[in-house]
């Protein structure tokens, strides 16, 4: 039943091969089985969620691989099925898409305003393929629709993340309809008071306007018909609460100033008809000066095309009209997804063959499109040179334990990360944990890594860092710190190197360095050669007094997880 509905939706725009249908069938059954017995917080069966997610991607006319991946998007994270199994059953590309969505699921936005843009970039960087973003957006849409079922604290976080990260991403992908829907779903959770106010004050006006427009509609239909224009559709578009609220803030909450509370939308066949219809409307009613917007000859940065005008309509009431073709309308609703469907239809044969469609080749066209659409994306900074999904391939985005995103060049190390937080954190850095594991300071970070920097007060940077740091900023700061403290470039037999075998538990490195610091011993370097059963830490200290060394060892041995300590004077 459900499966048939999904397959029907998938085949709506064009006929599909048996191979594609079978792929969706298999993914459907696999996912249904995997989620069997699982319930969502709302009480409904869990499978409903991946199903709705997949259905949305089918409505966007995405390919069978994407729909299959959408069906499977939660089986790794929520059921614990190995990605390997997905790869064996469904092939490399679906495994790649599922893995991408799983990774995005681990990102959390914690409301640091300046971080939103970095996090948006990070979503794209981690996705590598726009289809991953699209599945994630479909997933988020369904989660927002069922947000009422989860605890209030979490509601707020998810709603904020939706409004700050996913809705703007959807908008930039040209998916205005989705962006608006996400915003509207988040709005009551973010601004409950304002939402209630709007409900109380707007509802009547919406109805009043709709009734009014019902009277306008036949007049305009007749006028168009007289000029030989047969519109595909005339409907009303009520302004969304979230965007109405934003607009009201700009107009001192004066509802009378909002002319597009409910707009009349006319869909015609050609661009010529768009302009002709505009002329006809202006013959009927005088336009408000300064309110005619030609987004056809000058599309919005996200690709939106349409003609807008506000006229003094019946009884002299200002009313907004929006005029566009069906193609423009579909693009405004579905943006990049509409583009994707269009490109797919174009190349049918090769595109829809059984062989997986790898993003790179296919991407070119719509990436080009995207690039044109997303000028505002570039305008916001120097970092964006192109908008291929791999356009972040030279950047990595790593996160502090508090959720702050640090934007770094590819190949950057924990030391670069530390300097990215603050020069003092860089200077005092003695070690790092990445995703809860101790790593050497020259470790190469990956996008999405959670990086915890361990510091020791009054520690100075090491000359050797200059060999591996990637950012110019870190280099500069290291050099200047070294210049200020020539003492530190000491050579010779002043130092002791401890080799400590430890169990890898959270906080152990911190505990060890804290004990050393409390003994007023300066740490020169911490390194982690990962051999043997337990990690071996090597810690080099400014120390060559046997008594002090032995005292320190006694203290260190008391730390939980410390197995064995050796040392040598170097
Ligand atoms: Mn999900």
Give your account of this protein's structure.
By secondary structure, this protein is α+β, with helices and mostly antiparallel strands. It contains 23 helices and 14 strands. The strands form 4 sheets. Strands 1-2-5-4-3 form a 5-stranded mixed β-sheet. Helix 4 (64-71) crosses helix 9 (130-145), helix 8 crosses helix 10 (152-172) and helix 11 (176-190) packs antiparallel against helix 12 (192-226). The model is unreliable at 346-390 (pLDDT under 50). The structure holds manganese (II) ion. Manganese (II) ion binds at residues 49, 73-74, 139.
Task: Write the SSE topology.
Blueprint: H1 2-10, H2 18-34, H3 48-59, H4 64-71, H5 75-79, H6 83-90, H7 92-105, H8 116-127, H9 130-145, H10 152-172, H11 176-190, H12 192-226, E1 233-238, H13 241-250, E2 262-268, H14 271-284, E3 293-294, E4 307-312, E5 318-325, H15 326-346, H16 348-352, H17 359-373, H18 375-379, E6 395-399, E7 405-409, H19 414-421, H20 423-427, E8 429-434, E9 437-439, E10 451-455, H21 472-484, E11 495-502, H22 508-518, E12 523-527, E13 536-542, H23 546-557, E14 562-569
Parallel strand pairs: 2-5
Antiparallel strand pairs: 1-2, 3-4, 4-5, 6-7, 8-9, 8-10, 11-13, 11-14, 12-13
The structure holds manganese (II) ion.
The site of manganese (II) ion has 4 residues, from loops.
A few lines on this structure:
It comes from Candidatus Wolfebacteria bacterium CG1_02_39_135. The chain is built from 23 helices and 14 strands. It is an alpha+beta fold.
Total beta strand runs: 14
CATH architecture of the largest domain: Orthogonal Bundle
Q: How many helical stretches?
A: 23
Query: Looking at the chains present, what oligomeric state does this protein adopt?
Result: single chain
Shape: elongated
Strand content: 5-15%
When the domains are counted, the total is 4
CATH-defined fold name of the largest domain: Hypothetical protein af1432
Taking the sheet with the most strands, its summary is: 5 strands, mixed
Using only CA atoms, what is the Rg? Answer: 30 Å
């Amino acid at each position: 039943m459900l499966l048939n509905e999904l397959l029907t939706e998938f085949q709506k725009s064009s006929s599909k091969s048996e191979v594609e249908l079978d792929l969706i069938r298999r993914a459907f059954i696999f996912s249904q089985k995997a989620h069997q017995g699982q319930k969502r917080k709302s009480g409904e069966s869990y499978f409903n969620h991946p199903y709705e997610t997949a259905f949305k991607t089918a409505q966007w006319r995405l390919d069978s691989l994407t729909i299959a991946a959408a069906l499977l998007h939660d089986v790794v994270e929520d059921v614990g099925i190995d990605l390997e199994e997905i790869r064996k059953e469904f092939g490399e590309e679906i495994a790649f898409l599922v893995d991408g969505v799983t990774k995005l699921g681990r990102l959390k936005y914690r409301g640091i305003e300046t971080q939103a843009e970095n996090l948006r970039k990070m979503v794209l960087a981690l996705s590598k393929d726009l289809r991953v973003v699209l599945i994630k957006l479909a997933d988020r849409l369904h989660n927002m629709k069922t947000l009422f079922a989860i605890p209030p604290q979490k509601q707020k976080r998810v709603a904020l993340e939706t409004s700050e990260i996913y809705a703007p991403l959807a908008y930039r992908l040209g998916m205005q309809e989705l962006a608006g829907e996400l915003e509207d779903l988040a709005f009551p959770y973010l601004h409950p008071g304002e939402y209630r106010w709007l409900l109380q004050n707007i509802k009547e006006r919406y109805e009043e306007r709709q009734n009014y427009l019902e009277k306008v509609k036949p007049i305009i239909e007749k006028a168009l018909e007289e000029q030989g224009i047969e519109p595909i559709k005339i409907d009303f578009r009520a302004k969304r609460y979230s965007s109405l609220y934003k607009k009201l803030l700009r107009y001192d909450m004066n509802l009378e100033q909002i002319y597009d509370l409910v707009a009349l939308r006319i869909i015609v066949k050609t661009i010529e008809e768009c302009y002709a219809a505009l002329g006809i409307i202006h013959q009927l009613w005088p336009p408000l000066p300064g309110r005619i917007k030609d987004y056809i000859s000058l599309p919005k940065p996200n690709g939106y095309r349409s003609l807008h005008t506000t006229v003094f309509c019946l009884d002299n009431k200002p009313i907004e009209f929006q005029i566009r073709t069906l193609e423009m309308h579909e693009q405004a609703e579905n943006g990049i997804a509409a583009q994707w469907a269009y490109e797919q239809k174009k190349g049918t044969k090769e595109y829809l063959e059984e062989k997986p469609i790898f993003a790179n080749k296919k991407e070119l066209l719509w990436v080009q499109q995207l690039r044109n659409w997303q000028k505002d994306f570039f305008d916001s900074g120097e970092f964006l040179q192109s908008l291929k999904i791999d356009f972040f391939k030279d950047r990595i985005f790593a996160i502090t334990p508090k959720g702050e995103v640090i934007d770094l060049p590819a190949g950057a190390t924990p030391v670069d990360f530390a300097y990215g937080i603050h020069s003092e954190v860089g200077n005092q850095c003695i070690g790092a944990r990445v995703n809860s594991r101790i790593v050497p300071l020259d470790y190469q970070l990956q996008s999405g890594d959670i990086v915890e920097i361990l510091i020791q007060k009054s520690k100075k940077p090491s000359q050797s860092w200059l060999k591996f740091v990637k950012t110019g900023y870190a280099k500069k700061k290291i050099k200047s710190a070294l210049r200020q403290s020539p003492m530190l470039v000491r050579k010779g037999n002043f130092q002791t190197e401890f080799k400590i075998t430890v169990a890898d538990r959270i906080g152990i490195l911190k505990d060890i360095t804290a004990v050393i610091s409390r003994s007023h011993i300066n740490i020169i370097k911490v390194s982690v050669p990962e051999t043997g059963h337990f990690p071996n830490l090597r810690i080099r200290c400014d120390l060559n007094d046997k008594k002090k060394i032995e005292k320190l060892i006694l203290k260190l041995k008391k730390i939980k997880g410390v197995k064995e300590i050796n040392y040598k004077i170097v």
